[in-house]
Structure formats: C-alpha cells, structure tokens
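Title: Prediction job returns without error message
Component: structure pipeline
Severity: low
Priority: P3
Assignee: unassigned

Description:
Job completed but the reporter wants confirmation the result is attached to the right record. Sequence as submitted:
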Amino acid sequence: MKFRNFIEHCRKSAILRTVKKEVSQDLEIAAVLKSLDGRPVLFENVAGSKYAVVGGLYSSRDLVTEALEIGKSEMIRVLSGAIENHTKNEVVDSAPCQEIIESGVDLDKLPILRYFPRDGGRYVTSGLAITSDPEMGQNLCYHRLMQIGKNRFTARICEGRGTDTFLKRAGGELDIAISVGNSAAVMIAGAISAKKGVNELEIANSLEQTPVVKCKTKDLYVPADCEVVLEGRILAETVDEGPFVDLTETYDIIRKQPVIEITKITHRKNPVFEALLPGGLEHKLMMGMPMEPTIYHAVSKVCRCKNVAITEGGCSWLHAVVQIEKKNDGDARSAIDAAFEAHKSLKHCVVVDGDIDIYDMKDIEWALATRAQADRAKIFKAKGSSLDPSADEQTRMTSKAGIDATMHGDRKKFEKVAYKKVNPGDYV
C-alpha cells in the first residue's frame, strides 16, 4: 500500500492513534511515540508547522506485512525475490510529491524533531537519500540529517557505503535528493545492502509498483508518491554531527561529517511528515529485517535454510537466529560461518531446528537451554559494528559467538511433547 493509503488503512482498522491536541517538535512528539511504540501515531496539530507528523507506521512485522499485503511467513521469500528480480520503475512526468514547489528554502517550516535532550540538533530520521554515479547508477539509502541552518544539514554518511563511494568518485561534492514519507516497499528497499550498481528503488518496485519522477533541479529520480522531496548538494565542507541515539538506544559518537545544502523543496498538498523514533521498534525493524534475506541466501549455499530473524533484543542488528533443516551435525557450524560472513556487524548467531519459532524468544531460549552445549559454540575475535558500545572504539574489534542450538544424536529425547488439540471454548 502507498504511504497515505496505509495511514488510512490503519485508521479504518482502529490501529492508528490520532493526537489532535497541539504538540511540540521539541521532545514531546518523541515521548508520545516512545510511550506508544509499536503502534502508528498521527499528530494533526504540530506547534510551529503546517505539516502533520506520523510515526510508528511500520513498527511491527505485522504492520509491515499488512502494508505489503503479504503473510508474515512470506517475508523472506518476497524480499529475496525482489532483490534477485528487481524491475525498472515507471518514470512519470508529473507526481504528487511535486504538487507544491516552494519558492524558497526554509527548513524551519518543516516539523523536524528533537528526540532527546542531548541531541546535537533537530533531526530528519526517516529521510531516504538518493544519489547517482555515471557508471553505477542511482543509490537509495538512509542518512540521518541534523539541521544546522535554514537550508543546511549535516549527514551521517557511513564509510565505504553507496553515498560515500559516489561522493569520493565525484571528487568530494555530489547532488542529492532526500525523500520523506514513503511506502513500506521503499523504506525496506532503502535498508537493503544491494550489490553495487543495483538501484534499490527497483527492488521497491518489485515489492510494490513504485513510479518515479525526475527532480525539479537535479538529475535524480525520486518516488512519485512520497510526501516531501528535499533537493540539494553534498558539499566538501564538514562539521560536527551528533550526538545522536542509534539502534542500540545509546548515544553515537560525534564525528566530522559532510554538509548538505538544500536548494529546492517540493511536496504534496497537506503533507504528512514521517518521523522514525531513534532506537524504537520501527527503526530496529527497518534496519534489521532487510538483512534477513542476505543471511538467508548465504546460509542456503551451505545447508537447507528455512528462515532467518534479526532479533529486536539484539538491537535488530547485532543478533540473528537462523532456522535450518539439519541433515548432519556439521550443518549448524556451516550456517554460523555463512551468517557471520554475510552480515559483518553480527555479534551473536543462534542456529535452531525447524520446530523452533524464531519470532518467539522464549522458544529460542528453550532451544538454548535444552539443545545447546557451550563447548560447541564458535567464539572468535573480529571487526564488528560501530554501533556496539562494548567494541573497541578505534578498531571496532569485538568478540563474537555462534551457538549451535540444534538437536544432536537421538532426536526423540529433544522433541517437545504434543498434546491433543481441543477447542478451549468447549470447556468454559
């Protein structure tokens, strides 16, 4: 479903919480979102802005699968299919995201939120950055944007990723467009670590038809149905970015990061600005879930992989549960090796059998308690994620562990007992 269609779907399904009273961009909206984390919230009256704000729209697997109109068990298959068979987007001449073309640029008019007291500034958190390279084509990814003026942001641009690669190839300055208020398909595609040269908007198009339109002042193509487009340029200038809360719900460090100068703003009529709560369920899900097919594909090359879950308790980035159909005792170790190779930021990986519900942490812990032996774990040192506050701050070296929680030997002694199925209503 498109962004606005899904908001309306949530309203009709009584999932959406609508806040009509005036709320502040400074900490208050974030506090409400946190208190209702896991549920979509629409703020209709934001102090100092004509925009409405929505948050938590894709803050659970159920919400994401509803937005994509698929079953939860289909997620790995659907995401994998979209990555492998991405399709060209239809290019349209006119689009809802360009219904209004602002004559000037004043970022103060946007409902850009301050989430935490120690934040370095007001932040756009749901913005999807679109850049292009003459040889590699377009790239779509997330960058948090800290406002530093009426027409300027500084952006956290991760080293070695798409935008950073394009920026260096361009000589230090690069055109950029930022799309805010997107469908679940676009949001998920933007977090997928696609191969270089793959336009993630084409992955979104395979999840759901996603037409694109050319920017008004840049040779870049943005989702036609998004709410707001910020067109600009990444400059060679750098300033301090942060502090800011990341997936781990801890403050990230302050870094020198590039400045983005915004030169044009277009948007829909009566735009709805999307807020993504830092460290919240939606942030975790949008980051972690798109990594699941990457691990799934890698593990499938060495054994029969049934499913993968990046867990919420592991900050939806550092922990994974891999479900396999084990043919021999070496399959679990092979799966562990493949998972760590596929997702370099992974810190802990648990491999389980097909009878374990990988979305139920109690079931996973049961497998750890009854099927795992510590001396079968793979423990090693390697470079991990910059998000891990316990890793070495300079080298990012950390200890990692892969745990085999599958059945060994006589399967009968590991199997859960099964009770006769009855209808509880017959006994009340």
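Comment from assignee: result matches the submitted record. Residues 159 and 165 are 8 Å apart (CA to CA).
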